[in-house]
Structure formats: structure tokens, C-alpha cells
Amino acid sequence: MSASQGGRSRFRQAVAILFQQRSSAIGTSITLIFVLAALFGPVVAPYGLNQQLTSATFQPPSLAHWFGTDQLGRDVFSRVLLGARDILAFAGVGTLLAIILGATIGLFSGYTGGVVDEIIMRAFDGLLALPAMLLALLLLASLASSDLSVIIVLVVVYTPIVARVVRSVVLSVKELAYVRAARLQGEGLGWILYRAILPATYPALAVEGALRFSYAIFLIASLGFLGIGFQPPSDNWGMMVSDARQLTSAAPWALYFPAAAIAVVVVGVNLLADGLKRIAQTPPDPRS
Amino acid sequence: MTRASTPAPLLEVQRLTVAYTRAGRSYDAVRQVSLTVQQGESYGLVGESGSGKTTLALSVMRYLPRSAAVRGGRVLLNGADLLTLDAKAMRRIWGRRIAFVPQDPHTSLNPSMRIGQQLGEGLSTDGLDQRQARQRALSLLADVHLPDPPRIAECYPHQISGGMRQRVLIAMAISREPQLLVMDEPTTGLDTTTQASILDLIRDLVRRRSMSILYVSHNLGVVAQMCDRVAVMYAGELLEDAPAARLYARPLHPYTQGLLDSVPRLGQNKRRVRLRGVAGRPPSPAETRSGCVFLARCPLAIDLCNDAPTLFETAEGHTARCHRWKEIEAGSADPRQPASRKAGPPRTPTIGREVLALQDVQVHFPLRRSLADVFSRRIRRVRAVEDVSLSIERGFALGLVGESGSGKTTLGLTILGLVERTSGEIHLLGKPLPSVIAGRSPGTLARMQMIFQDVDESFVPTMSIAEILRRPLIRLSGSPPDEASSKAISLLEAVHLPPEFADRFPSELSGGERQRVAIARAFASKPEVLVADEPISSLDVSVQAAVLNLLNDIQVVRDSGLIFISHDLAVIGYISDVIAVIYLGRLMQVAPAAEIFEPPYHPYTEALLSAIPLIDPRGKQERIRLQGDAPSPVDVPRGCPFHTRCPRFLGNLCKEVDPPEQRTASGGMIRCHISLDELKAVQPRVFAFSSPVEGSG
Predict the structure, then answer these.
(1) Which of B284, B460, B507 to mutate to test the interface with A (most CBs of A within 10 A)?
(2) E runs forming strands in B367-433
(3) Where does A130-236 have alpha helices with state H?
(4) Which chain B residue's Cα is nearest to A280?
(5) What is the DSSP letter of B94?
(6) Which residue from A181, A200, A283 is facing B458, i.e. has the nearest CB?
(7) Most buried of B20, B225, B579, B592, CB within 10 angstroms?
(8) B495, B497, B498, B500 alpha-carbon torsion, rounded to 10°
(9) pLDDT 10s digits, B469-517
(10) Residue A233: per-residue pLDDT
């Protein structure tokens, strides 16, 4: 009947919730702008990533070069714009995989309980005891430098965190009547975990997903800044910041704009997380 | 206004209107309500959730939340309008003139402060020094009959029981000798036996200190026992207001009548009386309506009711908001059908119809061991269920009654295989039943289903009603998916819900509707045995009767066995054919329904019966109060588990020796050292109503 119709009204309701509060409206707009930049950056960017305008080095921001140019005459606006695609894609894919894996492990571990749960959780405690950056460095040191390694790092670093959050929700839900009713109906483990329990974790997952996404952007930028896991020439904002460090007095804009891009997108996604939580907590609009 | 002969009233609420604003929309929670509480009077305010009773109480206290605003009216205390006072002036009123006893003793005390300190804090503002405040706190704790006040004063709230915390809250409220106590459901959530002693305490305080009470409750029995005058609220309006004895004996508003007919009286049984209840669903606060607020659910509604009725004074001190009160009083308009009796006496169990048999079932949970336990080599276990043997017949209802912590829910879950049993046997249709669900086949699962207590948690919130009903059909009955859809619709019809509900989600249904869906789901696989765990206790009073009737009808039609778990002996007595009384995991008494209300009883049953607040202000009841709280199931007393609280305690025999199971003539059982003849000789009939309960038609 109205599955698509219901879906559409649910979408409209979600948009309405996002724009109800100023903070999440701002967060949504920022995130949207960066996503558009990632999608259409190559079409819109006035210059190429490494296109050197030898006649125009060290240009301050102007109408011709909105974010100025660096020592090699590269257009900083184009570089920031083109940098969005990779960083958002890596962060997005890494976070998504961490969410899927973490949710699955968290659901299984929390629902099964007992020794299995104990072993999984203590192992994750071990992983979480290491700071994310240190863990990332350790992994990258032992893996070949490639795009895949960066994603593996994100998954390893964030899966335990997501699993823990999901597990805590599972523990509060698994003794509820509807889970008991599902067991009495002879439902299998998969159905109980994904159909009965998983929806209860959506609010936590939405928030966790958005937060992990923003931290993933941050982590990738940080790795780029340290020059680990990415090979120049790369369009990683962190690496741009790193390159521009020597230019603080000559062309500070080359440093500031990529740094600002990192900061703004992280803040934006964090604000969005709040709105997502409210969407996940709102029941579907009752039909009149 | 007031005649010279009557003393000035203590509290007058005049045409009070309170509105809440939510999501930009505002609606009235209390509309034009007037009431008067006299000096020394206990005034009961009865209503269901959303009736506005708590909002009214909070406005009297000036405790309304920010989202609420008084839109009109006055609240006069000794003639002075409280609503016009500023915070500073109110501080002189709070505690000294009016005090509040909140509903939830678990969240109303500061968890990080000792009881003595919390009590003393309020007193220190009266200019008492620390020593005086402490002395006063101790004497207050003694006033509310707490044992060993110095020890209690040193306790943190979590170290004492819920009943004790409620006593502390009462002590706080009376600490500065207020004239008026506003109590919001002060005993809801407490065990019946605890509730009885708290009510005794309140009555005693009122008499000794000549305080007035505004008592807010949904419980008709408690109000009948506590109050001199009772008002009934519905959808923000006051529908009827009368002296308690009159209201309960001759209610004039159809809603009051419906409420009183919604709850079974002690001793009534479904085989002889059918509960009437109130049709329809309770109003949602956002609904806009014209005319009588009760119009949509009223069995006596006529065209005239589209005009909102006023409060008619039907007699001195008795008002009712109904156009037809005269006809109702004269008996020419009566919503009560002649009691639809079912033919024949209650059926007696017949051999060979047994569907489920429990033999010596035991459930123990190991406690998580602490380091101290490891060193002392103790193994501490929660002994939730001990040696329970029972059998359930086809078409029969077994009532399992007990207080919180008695193990009644655990026993239900154990039967269904949701909790693993430690030892003992359960047979379903003569075949041994594996201990847990994992070992049971879909065919076995289909034969046993459950209805849960909490209707809010019974369904996956993201699943439509159709999907909820289809699952057991597909999983357990093996219906193909398309057939399951049409069967789901007929299940909805069987529980008197329209087929449109199939597309709705649980959050769109009212509590009563949700419980109907739960009943439909439980019966989907045509079970032989149904376990219903407190299926009506989370519902509003007016819809309880309908759900109870429905459950009963389907069970009888399907000829399945029912295990009905409840803390409420009146409900258990109504629905059950056989009643089992459980205390600390042990069956203390098993008896046919009619017999449980007549001596000989087990002393614990006797205490339970005497603790139930009768829905009859003039009813007579033996007064037996249990001392202290039930022991923890971790440290079950030796001998008879009830000996620590037993009013008929014999001595060392009860302490040392497990009492024998004495068989009664009808096949019942009483586990007690006192012989049945002796029990019968010393025990009176615990309760009596002022008028015959059955045969109202």
C-alpha cells in the first residue's frame, strides 16, 4: 500500500525535526555543504589539485583566489574543495563498516551474555586502553601504506566503541517483554537480534555513528598531518596543513583554510548527531 | 455564603482551570473544578490517568511544572488565596500549613543523605538547634512507627525498604504540624500488606492531630477506606462529589457506576458475576470535545448530553454532573445490566483433563559472588521457587497470588522455559517438558504462551500490529504468509478491535487496546496453557474489566488452561477456579476459589485478606497486620518461611520444622503446623460487605 508514502512522510518528519532546532539546522547545513563539495568538487573547482600557477604564488585571498595561493601557486580553495571527497569517503566507509561490525558484535555479545560476552568485552577493553592515535600508528606501521589500511585502522579503532554502546542498550532491552515474547514465538537468533533488539539501539547508533564519523575525519586528517598512511601528492587536508606549516608568515591562509575545513566539518557533524538522535527517538507520525 | 452553623472550610478550590502547553498546543488538564475540604476531613480524589487529579493536587501545593499554568480560579486556604502568594509567602505555608506526600518513595528522598539529616534539615529552619532537631527527628520517626529510630536515622534511603521510606516521607510531611496533607498515591507500588499498615498510620495521624487530607488515588478501595468524602474526576472535570458512604452505595454518575463495576469485589467469581466496566478508551488530553466529557463512553447518553451538564446538587452535599441523575436515582435509567449469570455452579476439576503438571519445581539463582564469599566459602543463592507442585486443568484458571518477591513471576517464566529450573519436573499433556526454550520444539512452544504485565514493553515498537500478529502464526502454526495476514485480521476481530488496527503501530494504541493485541498474539498459536502475568495491573481501572472479561471469554471458548499471576487477591478470586498463595517461593495454600475466602485459611492468606482495602466504606474487616518486611529470598527463614511475621506463630516448632501440607476436604492444601480444625476454630471470616455483593440485578 503505502510503504513509499510512509517512507516519504517519515523523511519529511525527519527533515522537520532536524530544522526545528538551530544547532542541528546549522549542523545539517554544514554537513550538506561538505557532502556537496565532495560530490561536485571536481566539477566546480576552478583549478586542479596540483595545478601550479607560477605567476601567482603567495597570493592572499582575493576574488580570483578565494582562499589565496601557496608557495607553488596552487589555488587553496580548489585544494580544500577537492580534498573533501577522499576524506569524507574514507571516514564514511570506515565508520559505516565499524558501525555494522560493532553493532553485530554488540548485539551478539550482549544478548548471549556469560563467558562469550566476558571474553569479547575484555578483549575490547584491551583495545580501548590504547589511545586511538597510538593504535592507528601501530597498525599502520605493520600494514602496507594503502587506502585500505586507513579503512582497516578506522574499523579496528571504532568497532569496540560502537560494540560497547550497542551492548549497553541490548542489556537494558533483552529482558523486556517483547524479547521474551519473541523467544516464546520460537524466533531465531538473527530475528531476535536484528528485528526485535536492533531498532532499540537506533538512537544510540545514530549519535555514535555521527560522532565516529566526525572523529574519523579528524583521525584521517591527523594521520595526514603526520604523513603516515598517505603518500604525497595527496589531497588530505591534514597533509595540506602539514605542508603549509613553514608558510605561517608568508601565506598563513594556506594553513588556515584546510585547518578550518577540518574544524568546521567536525563541529557540523557533531551538531547533526544531536538532531539524528532526536529523529531516532521520535515515533512515526501517527496518521490522522 | 457559608452558613453560620458550619465552621469555615479549611481548603476551598474554586472554579480552578489549569492548562498545559506542549509542542505549542495548550490543553486543559483541570477545568472549572471546585471542591471544599473541611477541618479534620479526609477528602478523596479518584480518577484514572489523565483525569487531572494529580494536576489539581499540585496546583493546591503550588508545585505545578513550568509547562502548566493556572488559567482561572482560586485556591483558598483558610480564606486566603494561595495562587496570589509569592515564593517567600509560600515558604511560610509549605510545611506549616500544607504539606505534600509524593507518590514515589524511591525517588523522593535524597539518596546521598542520611534519613535523620533529611528530616532535620526541614526542622532547622524552625529555629531548632542541631540537637533539638535531632531529638525531634527521632520522635517523628517513632511517631510513624518505625522500629529503632536511632538506627533508621543513621541509614541512607537505599538501606531501608519502600514501606519504610514512605513512612519517612510521611514523617517529613507532618514534621511541622500542617493543617492539610496533600497525598498523591502514597501507597501505590507498595505491597498490599505494607499498604494496609501505612493506611493505618495515616488514619491514626489524622485522628490524633486532627489534620485534613486531600487524598489522590486511582484505587477505589483505598479511598473507600480512607476518606469521609470522595470526588470523582474524569478528563479534567469533577463528575461527582459525595460523602464516601453515599457515593459507594448510591453513585449517581454513570462513570462512577462504571468505575465501581470495573473492579471485582473480594469473593466475587467470574462463574457467577460478569464485570461491567466502561466501554471505549480513556480520553486523550489533546482531544477537543463539546458536551458531556463522558459522552463517548456513556451507556446512558441521550441527545441532551451534547450540551455540557453542570454539577447538579442532588441532595445535601452530593453533586453529580449528569443530566439524567434523577432518572438514575429513581432507577428508571440503569446502565447495569441484570447481572448476567452463567448457568450452573463453578465447575470442579475433573481427572484426566490435566494439561500441565508441576512436580517439586525448584528455581535457585546463584548470586554473584563477592570476594568475602569466596573466602568464607559460602555459596549464596536466591531461592526464588521451592518445591512447587501444581496442576492445571483444561478450561480452568489457576490464580497465583503473592507479594513482590514471592517468586510468582519466576514460577511463570520457569513454566514457559524463559528461566531455567534447578530441579523438578514439568509435564505438558503428560510429556516431560525440557527446562528451557532452546530444548522445546515449535509445536511445544505453540502450546504455551504468555501475556505480559507491561503493555508498553510487550511489542517491538517498530513493528505494525499486523506483523506482530503474523509472526506467531508463521513461526508456530506454520501458516503461509498470505494466509497469516487474513488470520491476523480475524484475531483482531476476536479481541474486538477493528481491522484497521492492523496497519497501526503499538505507540498509537491505548493501554487497553495494546493488551487486547497481546491477548490476540498469545492465542494466535492456539495454546493449551496461557500464563498471564499481572495482565491488568498496568491498565486504567475503567478498562480493566473489559480486558479481564475478554481474557476470560477466550480462555473458556478455547478451553485452554490459564495461569493468572497477580498480587491482587480480589482479581485472583474473580478470575480463578483454583487459587495458589505463594510466599517466599513456597506454596502456603492451594484452594478452590470459593474456599479461599472462608476459614480455615493459612495465616498468611488471612493476613492478605485482611489487608485488602474493601471497596465499601462500611464493609467490615478483621484487622491483622504483619510486622516488618518479608525476608529476602536469599535468607529464607528455617522452618516455616512465614514464621518471622506470622500472627499465629506457635513457637519453636514453626522456627525449626518445615510445616506439613494438610489436605482439605475439597482437595486443597494448607501448609501449617496448626491443624485445620484449630485454624477454623480461631479464625473469623475476615471480611464482610455492608450489602450483599452478588446479585445486583
Answers:
(1) B460
(2) 381-393, 397-401, 423-428, 431-432
(3) 132-142, 147-173, 177-184, 189-191, 198-226
(4) B462
(5) B
(6) A181
(7) B579
(8) -110
(9) 999 999 998 899 999 999 999 999 999 999 999 999 998 888 899 999 9
(10) 62
Compute the distance between CA of residue B324 and CA of residue B307 in angstroms, rounded to an integer.
12
How far is Cα B646 from Cα B49, in angstroms, rounded to an integer? 37
CB contact under 8 A, A181 and B463: no
Q: A45 is written with which cell numbers?
A: 573547482
The DSSP letter of residue B7 is P
Residue B561 host element (H or E): strand B561-566
- pLDDT-wise least confident of B72-76, B344-348, B396-400, B450-454: B344-348
- To 5 degrees, how large is the angle CA B494–CA B497–CA B498? 115
Rounded to 10 deg, the angle between the B465-475 and B511-524 helix axes is 20
Between CA B572 and CA B570 the distance in angstroms is 5
Segment B255-258 long-range contacts (CB within 8 Å, at least 24 positions apart): B255/B294, B255/B297, B255/B298, B255/B542, B256/B232, B256/B320, B257/B328, B257/B335, B257/B336, B258/B297, B258/B299, B258/B335, B258/B542
E strands, B48-123, in order:
68-77, 80-81, 98-101
User: In the block, which residue shows the cell 474456599?
Assistant: B595
Query: How does A6-28 read in b/e, with b if 16+ C-beta sit within 10 Å?
Result: eeeeeeeebeebbeeeeebebbb
Strands B561-566 and B529-533: parallel
pLDDT band at A8 (very low <50, low <70, confident <90, very high): low
pLDDT > 90: percent of chain A: 37
Alpha-carbon distance A263 to B343, whole Å?
A: 80
Do residues A258 and A237 lie in contact, with contact meaning Cβ atoms separated by under 8 Å?
A: yes
* Chain B: residues touching A (Cβ < 8 Å): 413, 416, 418, 437, 442, 445, 448-450, 452-454, 457-463, 471-472, 475-476, 503, 505, 507-508, 521, 525
DSSP category for residue B158: G
Residues B507, A283: C-beta atoms closer than 8 Å: yes
Coil/strand/helix, residue B658: coil
Cα angle A245, A248, A249; round to 5:
150
How far is B229 from B9, CA to CA, in rounded Å?
Answer: 14
How many alpha carbons lie under 13 Å from residue B315 in its C-beta half-sphere?
A: 12
pLDDT tens by residue, B112-123: 999 999 988 877
Q: Which cell is A147 given?
A: 587506502
**Whole-prediction pTM:** 0.87
Strand order of the sheet with strand B180-184? B98-101, B180-184, B212-217, B42-46, B229-234, B237-243, B318-320, B312-315
Per DSSP, B595 falls in state G
Q: What phi and psi, each to the nearest 5 degrees, are found at residue B400?
A: -115, 110
ipTM of model? 0.85
Q: What is the 3-state secondary structure (H, E, C) of B562-586?
A: EEEEECCHHHHHHHCCEEEEEECCE
Task: Note whether B406 and B398 are within 8 A (CB).
Answer: no
Conformation bin of residue B560: beta by default, left when phi > 0, alpha when psi is -120 to 50? beta
Mean pLDDT of chain A: 85
- Cα–Cα dist B344/A168, whole Å: 55
Contacts of residue A11, Cβ cutoff 8 Å, sequence gap at least 6: none
Cell digits of residue B691? 450489602
In this complex, the residue of B418, B445, B503 whose CB is nearest that of residue A186 is B445
Q: Which residues pair with B671 in a beta bridge?
A: B661
Cβ–Cβ contacts within 10 Å for residue B127, how many?
Answer: 8
